[in-house]
Design brief:
little secondary structure, extended, hydrolase, hydrolase activity
Length: 51
């Protein structure tokens, strides 16, 4: 079964993407109204995620 899915990006930021052909993972971004500092080995929970 094939399914077509349309992704709508309403933010000013690009969608997650591989930086190079040999990248093991994607860089992700968040469209936040305030800055967040990520601390080493600590978790941060974001309530809503919109692309």
């Amino acid at each position: 079964m094939n399914m077509n899915i349309q992704v709508i990006n309403k933010s000013k930021h690009p969608l997650p993407a591989y930086a190079t052909e040999l990248s093991a993972g994607m860089d992700i971004r968040a469209n936040l109204s305030a800055s967040v500092t990520l601390k080493h080995l600590k978790d941060v929970l974001f309530q809503r995620v919109y692309i």
